[in-house]
Amino acid sequence: MAFESLQEKLGGVFKKLKGRGKLTEADVKEAMREVKMALLEADVSYKVVKDFVSKVTERSIGEEVLSSLTPAQQVIKIVNEELVALMGDGNAKIAFPNKPPCVIMMCGLQGAGKTTHAAKLAKHFKRTEQMRPLLIAADVYRPAAIEQLKIVGEKAEVPVFEMGQIDPRKIVKEGLKHASDYGNDLVIIDTAGRLHIDEELMQELIDIKAIAKPHEIMLVIDAMIGQDSVKVAESFDNALGIDSVLLTKLDSDTRGGAALSVLSVTGKPIKFVGMGEKLDDLEVFHPERMASRILGMGDMLTLIEKATATIDEKDAEAMARKVQEQGFDMNDLLDNMEQMNKMGSVASIVRMLPGANNITDEDIAAGEKSLKKTRAMIQSMTKEERAKPSLIDPKRKRRIAAGSGTQVSDVNQLLRQFEQMKKMMKQFGIGGKLHGKKQRMNRAAMMKAMSSMGNMPGMPKK
Asked: Which of 124, 191, 393, 395 has its CA 20 to 30 A from that of 205?
């Protein structure tokens, strides 16, 4: 899980601070030494760590903090603010030109994930901005790179322009003409990478830049390479002049040093992060939300945005009407589980919940296993049993358990959790019958429901 080790260490530091009540300057400095070690172990650049700790210490030993009734909370607030500043105040966005197409040139080392993330980016803008993207296959050296782009492009429902393994400069030139002829307002160029930086690679990229005149040169970096990511960013920036960074595999990087170092060292903002293997596993990088995750406070806004983007509004309204008119049943629970599955893996959802740093990988694995069992049990029920679970007597429980490869105790647990969910739905105003007017779930209720996802059968418990 992203930042897992850093979350754990910082959580320990702040727990000790909270346990001391009033703080002295010595307490703060001792805590900052531990914070410094935690950041260095997270593979954050030494200079970045030194500056960060210096700023936090200076602000934290002020009289206003030390004399506060909640000094530990004040220190945590300062750490949060400085983390946000470290990663960039406000999320940086791509500046689309007044006259389309907008051209984004992807670059980076081989294996960073350029090809897959070119398709992810295209799908993102197609969905969020209603754009008509075109992918240009300009990586003519890596075996099967063109075929890979065609496959992910098809999955993203985005056209791919390719001319085989000829000079990439000609491909880009012809691809831009194609975009102009067919009205594509966004062009994403997938360029070649190397296992290391060399003059030949850089010259080719410089030539493509001259031809394409991109509005955005986006460097794709594998978060797993830690501090080396900063060196890669500096090399590409010096030769090419990058505008932003897309950080991949952040979900697999338990340290997170790259995310905390890139902007400070290179001056180039992280605009997107890859958080999984699916084409929807791409997130806009919000420094304040990432800081919240690092400090174990969750990221409810991104979770709600994921749900909003994934769940079809008409389907949601139809389900709400059905639940309000007929009540919540096992069919609705199964539908909710399928919608959750569309939002991503259990791990990707859990890490956005407050207190996620208290949930281990083992908890998440157990949760995924439990969700599969829950799905199997519901699918082993008859239509009548799903619509009216109160019909399920001991004999039916034994049949459901046998049909789903589970135990009767598992069926009993599912029925108890189902009753808890029914109460939760009523609490949020979406579980009862209509009484003359339609009820709608407002933003506040949605946030409460998302916060209570731990009550879903199979979800890991904090």
From this structure: 124
DSSP H helices in 183-327:
199-212, 228-240, 257-266, 287-294, 300-310, 313-326
Amino acid at 12: G
> What angle (nearest 5°) sits at the alpha carbon of residue 89, between those of residues 1 and 285?
35
Tokens representing 446 are 């949605």
For the residues 360-379, what does the mean pLDDT come to?
84
Structure-model confidence comparison of residues 218 and 44, the more confident one: 218
| DSSP-derived 3-state class of residue 101 | coil
**How many residues are given for the chain?**
462
pLDDT of 71-106, one tens digit each?
Answer: 888 888 899 899 999 888 777 889 899 999 999 999
Which two three-digit tokens encode residue 311?
A: 């769940």
Q: Which of 203, 200, 146, 144 has the alpha carbon at shortest distance from 171?
A: 146
Query: Environment class of residue 259 by beta-carbon count within 10 Å: exposed (0-12), middle (13-18) or buried (19+)?
Result: buried
Please give the single-letter amino acid code of residue 166: I
Kindly report the average pLDDT of the chain as a whole number: 83
Cβ(244)–Cβ(268) below 8 Å: yes
> CA-based angle 37:286:209, to the nearest 5?
100
444 contact partners, CB below 8 Å, separation of at least 6: none
Which DSSP state fits 102?
Answer: E
Domains of the chain, CATH where assigned: 4-87 (1.20.120.140), 102-297 (3.40.50.300), 304-455 (1.10.260.30)
- Provide the pLDDT for residue 440: 43
Closest to 192 in 3D by CA, of 112, 132, 134: 112
Q: Which residue spans within 51-162 are E strands per DSSP?
A: 102-107, 133-138, 160-161
DSSP per-residue string spanning 164-180? -SS-HHHHHHHHHHHHH
CA distances from 333 to 291, 418, 456, 458 (A): 33, 8, 9, 12
Tell me how far apart the alpha carbons of residues 376 and 319 are, in angstroms, rounded to a whole number. Answer: 22
Report residue 186's pLDDT band, with 50, 70 and 90 as the boundaries: very high
Report whether the peptide linkage leading into residue 287 is cis, meaning its omega lies within 30 degrees of zero: no
pLDDT in tens, 200-232: 889 999 999 999 999 999 999 998 877 788 888
Say whether pLDDT at 254 is over 50: yes
Rounded CA gap, 388 and 74, in Å?
A: 51
Helix (H, G, I), strand (E, B) or coil at 82: helix
Distance CA 428, CA 202 (A): 56
